Structures are given as C-alpha cells and as structure tokens.
Description:
Blueprint: H1 3-15, H2 19-33, E1 38-41, H3 49-66, E2 72-77, H4 81-91, E3 98-99, H5 110-118, H6 121-126, E4 128-133, H7 135-138, H8 148-158, H9 168-176, H10 183-200, H11 204-216, H12 219-226, H13 231-248, E5 252-256, H14 263-266, H15 272-281, E6 287-291, H16 302-308, H17 312-324, H18 328-345, H19 352-366, E7 370-371, E8 385-386, H20 398-410, H21 418-423, H22 427-430, H23 435-443, H24 449-455, H25 459-463, H26 473-483, E9 514-518, H27 523-539, H28 541-547, H29 579-582, H30 586-591, H31 602-615, H32 617-624, H33 632-645, H34 647-655, H35 658-672, H36 675-685, H37 692-702, H38 705-716, H39 721-732, E10 737-741, H40 744-747, E11 755-759, E12 762-765, H41 772-785, E13 793-796, E14 810-815, H42 822-829, H43 838-848, H44 857-868, H45 876-879, E15 890-893, H46 902-915, H47 925-935, H48 938-942, H49 950-962
Parallel strand pairs: 1-6, 1-7, 2-4, 2-5, 3-4, 5-6, 8-15, 9-13, 9-14, 12-13, 14-15
Antiparallel strand pairs: 10-11
Amino acid sequence: MTGTALAERERIVLSELKDFQRATVERCFDLFKNGQRRVLVADEVGLGKTLIARGLIAKLANLHKQTGDDLFKVLYICSNAAIANQNIRKLKIHDNVTVDGVSDTRLSMQHLKIFEQENDPEIRKGYIQLIPLTPATSFSLTSGSGNAPERALIYAILEHLPEFRGHKKQLRSFLMQWATKGFDWWIGEMERRVELCDANTNGAYLRALLEEVRTGLTDELIQTIKAGQYESISKLRLLFAQISISRLNPDLVIMDEFQRFRELITAAPDSETGLLTNAFLKKSAADTLLLSATPYKLYQTLEEAAESGVDEHYREFLEVMHFLFDDQEKNARFQEIWSDFSVSLRETSSDFGTLINIKQKAEDEMFGSVCRTERLLVDSDGAFIDDSQTRTTLDITDMDILSFVEAENINDAEHIPVEYVKSCPYLLSFMEHYKYKSDIKRIKPNFSCRARQVLFVDERKLRGFEPLPPNNARLERLNDVAFGSGAEKLLWVPPSIPYYEPRGVFKGKDDFSKVLVFSAWEMVPRMIACMLSYECERRTIGKLYAKESDKRLKGYLTEDSATRQRRFPTPRLVGGRERPLTVPSEILADIYTPVDFMGQSIKQIKDTIKPKILEHFDELQAIYELPTKDGKANLIDTYANMAIASPAICALRVFGDKKLAESFAGEVADMFDKPEAIAVVELAYGKSEDAHYKNVLKYCVDGNFAAMLDEYAHILNDKSPESLCNQMCDALKATTASYSIDIYSSFIGDKKSQIRMRSHFAAGFYQTQGDEKTAQRKENLRTAFNAPFRPFVLATTSIGQEGLDFHNYARKIMHWNLPHNPIDLEQREGRINRYKCLAIRQSLAHAYRNRKFIKDVWDEVFQYALEAKGENEPELVPYWCLRDGGAVKIERIVPMYPYSKDMAVYDRLLKILSLYRVTLGQARQEELLEYLFNNCDAETLKELFINLSPFSKSLSRQDEGKA
C-alpha cells in the first residue's frame, strides 16, 4: 500500500468514528508519539474500544510508513477465539490487510509462519499484518504437551540436528504421545512446509532455526528428550515459543479485555509467562495498547475482600498503573500524587476546594496513560434503563414450595441450597456436573410420587405436547415476558420501522424484543433453552398435533434419524415449490422500491405495481412456471406478494447479486420448512401443502420481510455484499441443538432412557468442556441471537458477561440471580446497551418514522437524530444514548421472591452503581463509600469523579479558551 493510499485510509477510518472516539484516538496517538509506550483505553462497556484500536492502527501505520518501515505488524491478544473472530475483522482497515488465522495462534509455531510470510509480496503490498494470539495456547506451555501439529513441527525441526539423526524413531514416538491417529500425516505436512519454506528462503529458515535451537538446547535437555521424559516437551514448546517471539517484532501490541489474562502484565520475570511476555512487552520497541472496560476489579465489597483475603481492587489498580508507568521515576511520581489524593479523600471535612485541586492533580497524572469515556457524559441519571417491572414480586404457588420440600427431603445428610430450587424447576432433570446430583445418585433414595413430579420432567406429558406443571416462579415470569406478546407465532423480530402497516400475527407487535437472561448457575441456561423451546412447540406444533386424526404420528419425542419417523409436521417446500421464495428476479425487484411506497397500505401498493407485473407476466411465468389453474388474477397477486416480500427479491435489492440473493433465500426457505415454522404458517393461514409457498409469502408480506432485512443489513454495516450475505446465512444456519435430559428411569440406572429436548426458540450459552466444534457452536449462537431470527431468548452465565455483544435485537435483560458486585450488573447490561442497539432504534422509530425518506431509511433516521442533538453533546447521542432516555428503553427485569432479601440487595447495588466511581483506585472501597455517603451529598461526590475523557477535556479547553 502506497503512502498516499495509507494516508487516505487513515482519513476514511477516522471519519467513520464518532467524535468522542476520534478524540481518544488522537490522545493515544499523541501519548505514543511523545514516548509513553503503554496506554490504556478503559471506555465503558459497549462504546467501541475496538474501533478506537482500528483508528489508532490507521494513524500509527501511516506514521511508520512515513518513516520508511516496509511492514506494520500488529499483535492482537485476546482471551479466546470467539472474541477474536468478533473483533479481528473490525481491525482490518483495508481489504489488502493480512489477517492471520484465528485458529492457528500457537506461539511455538509462529516461527514457521513468520518465515513463510517474510517474502510474501501480497503481505508487503497490504503493508499491515494482523496477528492474533490467545494466552491459553500461546503463553501457558508448561502444562500439557500441546497439540499434534505443534509437536509435529517440533519434530520436523529437531530431525535436522545431528544429535537426533540416529534417534529419529524414538523422537517420533516420543512426540506422538497419545495422538496416534493422524500424527504421521501431520509430520508429513510439517516436513513439507519446512522444506518448502527453507527452499523459498534459500536455506535461511533452517539455518536460523537450528542455530537458535542449538543455543537453547542444553545437553541435559537433549538427554531427557532421548529418554522420552514427558516434561521435556513443555521445555521444547517454551524454547520454540521464545524463538518465535524473538522474530515477531510487532510495532503495536493490542491486549483486548486483558483483565482476563492479567498474568501477562503481572508475571514474575523468571516465570515461564514472564520470560515470554518480557520479550515483546518490555524489551521490544512496540507500543502497547490495553483495552478493557474493567482493567482492574472496579469495585470490591468487604465480603469479597474477606473471602479472598486481599484488597483485589487496590492491588490490581496499582499493578495496572505500575505496568503503564514502566519508568521507575514516572511510577514513583504517580504513587506519591495518588497517595496524597487518597489521604485527602478520607478527610472531606477539610477544605473542599483544596481536595478538588488535589483530585485534579491526580487526574492529570493518570490521564498521562489512561483514557476513559462513559455514558455519564450524557445519561447521568440512568434514564435509558426501565426497571419498573422489578418492583413487582413473583407469584409463589404450592408447587414452588413442594419443589423445595421434596428436594430437601431426599438427602438427610445434605441440605439443598435454596437458590437451586428458586433458580431451576425439575432439578434432577437439568442438573449436570453438580455435586448435589451425584450425591443423590450415589445414595439411591426412594422417590415418592410427589418427588418424581417436581424433580423430573414428565416424559408422558412431553410425548403428547401437554403442559408441564408450573413449579418455578422465575420460569413463569420468563414465560410471561417471552410469550406475552405471542412470540411463538413470530419467526423474526418485527422491523422497528415497517414499510407499511404490519398485518396478521405481526399486528400490534411494536417494540418487540428478544430477551437476554443472566444466571449464576450453569443448569439454568440448559433448562431455559429446553423449557421455553418446548413451550413454543406446545403452543404451535402441539395445536396441529391435537387436530391430527392419524394417531400413528409421533409426538414431541420423535426421533430425527432417517431410519425412524420424521418430526411432525413434515416439509412442505419440496419438488420446486420453494422457487417463488428462492429464485430472484430483477423485474420484480425493480417493480417495487419500498422507500417510494412508505406509509401506503398493501392494497395501495398492489394497485400500483400490478399493472407493471401484467406487462411482464409472460417473462415471469417463463421463470417461475406458477400453476395456471388459479387464474391470471390470482397469479398476478402472488407475483405482487413476491415483489413486496419474497426473500429472494428482498435479498436481491440488498445484495445486488442474484447468486448471493439465491443463497440467502435458500437458507430462509430451509428455515420455513422446519416443523416449528410450518406450524406457525399453518396456524395463521391454514393447511395447503401444494400452495404452502403462497402462505409463506403472505407471512413474509404481513411481517414486513423487506423492512426487517434492510434494518438487519444496516446493523451489520458490511460494505462487501458477499461478506454481508455470509453473515446473514451463518445466522440462519445455527442449527437446532438438543440436550440429553434425565427422566426418573434414566436417573435411577438406565442411562439409555434419557430423553433429548430441543432448543430453538431459546438457547443456552454457557461454559462447556469441548473441542473446536463446541467453540464454533457458541460463535454460531452469538451470531444467531444478533440476527432478527430465532432464538428469541438467550440464557447465559458469566461467560456471556465480558467481551461479547448481544444488542442488535435485545433490549430486555433478566437477572435470574442478582450479582453480588454492582459492576457485574453494569457489565451484564453492557451486552445490550451498545451502539445502535434495539432500544435506540425503536426510540428513533417513534420519533422519525413519519418523516420523508429518500433512499436509505436508517441512514437518514440517524442523520435526522444527529442534527437534533445539542451543540456540545458528544456523538454518544444518538448512537448510544438519547437526551431524555428515549420513548423505548432497555428493560431490566429482576424476578424477586416476596419477603426475600433481593429488594434490599438490589437497592444497594443501584446506590453503589451511581457513586462507586469516586472510590476508584482506593483501598477498602465499601468503607470509604459509607464514609462519603455519611459526609457528602450525591452532587458533591460527583465533583470528585476522576474524568479521563479526551472529548470532555477538549471541550473544557475550548471553554477556557473562550473565557
């Protein structure tokens, strides 16, 4: 990339940022340019820290190009592949930028990749190279023996050393370990790559590697390898990792959500991790950008401090600041100034003006390495959150009490935690890997009929789609939230701005939202996924099943195997019947341009476009071959429905490419041919196997498919039609999962009699032990929940709390269990309180849906809102916040039991959340906050908040200049 092209990319990338993000980019750039080698961006969750990193890459790359560098290397370190996949494409500032594979992040193997890429003209052409690493596979090498490719590469290098030439067979067997299957193939593959790389570098690769390996190989290590001692593998992995690091030479290191691998900044210099990180964080000349909304534990209760035996907040704060100010003199200066502030803060009875001056001095010093922007700049009173439902306690039934009594009576030796029973119905069905369950299994109790009824799912009721007895008040509240608006009849979230009045099952579904549920227990996401999906099927498929006269049909527990009966109802869109949904037509795409007809009724739209369809009738019939028995008038009406809402036609308008449109429409047709979708359509329009496609088209028209798809495309904001199509198709490919569930018979001994419950309406996102396939399923789930299609409910644990976004179609969040720490509440809600989130879009829809639109509805809506914001307001408005909170808000739902301590805990969390910022960086925060509560009013305390916002400070400087 030429210097001119890179300068233009910098201009474009910065222009795409919001004003407060640009201010942070400029501040970080100035700090790096003036010698500060480590900078922390700690913007509040959801404000686009990754985009700030993107802007900084553009500026620094341009700077390095101007100084004559021929390649700008960015090392991107994050905690797992899911976050890497989500963010790495955002950091790619141009199509020519090289992005290394997320799955190939093992540090001990990077040396081969570095030499392979060293003379690659395509990489040089792109100038910027992004290299993702994950700490678990890159920096933790002493435990485990690595994977088969890693050990095969070690063999492909060591076999060239004279010391091992007579020991190749033993070396091969030793490095194989337990990976007997496929290891020979991996050795062949790595030998091929090593040989090719060596040839392409004229022998430089092996010459350099063998020289560095010999330097690191002691006689003792050679002997332990020959003797096949297991611990020598980790030493070899560490050796090759050190070789890789010595050759990485990054220009910029980005540590994203680094609090999840903080050992990289705190490791002792002589530890394994310390040896590795010291090489590129301390010895190299690379700038280091840390990204984290929670760089240290933002708030610690006295209970947490007592439990851990250490003031984690204060310790972690000092560790981070020590890392940022790596110069001994700078660090000592910061410590002295911060200590003065800490002492003064505990003496608020003294001169308040003096305290403010001391606070300002501490703030200025911290601003030398830390930037943080928060929504408080606009939304200081939390007007964007609606918690009115929280004050309504749950309705407890006899079955709730019976569940606890029966669970408590099973094991006299062990009491059941009451939170288990409050959190999950049918405990012994949904528990997995819990000691309580394994203990009960071990003692083999006799279960009474009542115990079976409340502790296990009733298989017989499932078979006939019968209601399961309600025995958990929290689940009943979630059922009300999830199904209260008839969500079982919807296959996608209705668009925020429909192009015409929604009809049928979509009528009256304004401001609909998916629901994100957070729980402290892993059994809860499994339970919610199964129970809500079953309830959805019961309300739809169950109704069709009840009408069927053929009693040979299987019910809910039908097997999906090809050798057994298929699920009911069976596919309808077969034998070419799907063509009106999946085949695009430029004629139909051009006949109806949605923005030109906004505000008109369906009848008015059809009256206008039908004459045009008549003109092209023969051409359309040649393409689609619709049966003529219905008569020409009915066929024209079908073509009108296709022009307005056929998935293929709508997709063609979005992608501008027939192949892409057909690919996406095929996925939509597959969705419509699943039993749960067939039931929805047939309940709405009746059964018609031959003309089922017509009913599907009616459903798409009634549901404003075009408006839904346009809004989805706007959110994804991908300029590449192919990439946009792939993302949409991936969302639809998130296949139905199923969970193995214990019933009474399987629990007492016959494991084969476990049943499988499907999840599709709701899904569970939680930590599981698994392989790459499991990790991919989590990524698919995140993609699906961020799409307008099902699942409509996602239940998760703390794994969903950091680093991932779920905001595109969810503005309702349910805290199944209240967290102990108020910051966790903030972190959870940050998953849906993000850029252009659903609540923002629905609020703007209320304000601007009746305006005149020219071309792109959503671009123009946000432009209208931007023009209406205040002069000195940051561009948090209107993309993250609205001045009055907006007409539609994020709904916080806390299902509280009556007479419990939940309400007092909740009020305490809110009080601390509003003012905890004054105690950042202070020891024993809770004590200090109590002292300040007793000695200062809330408005006075806010004056003591540390302001690290570059945008806010730039405004203050402007005001001072005017004065």
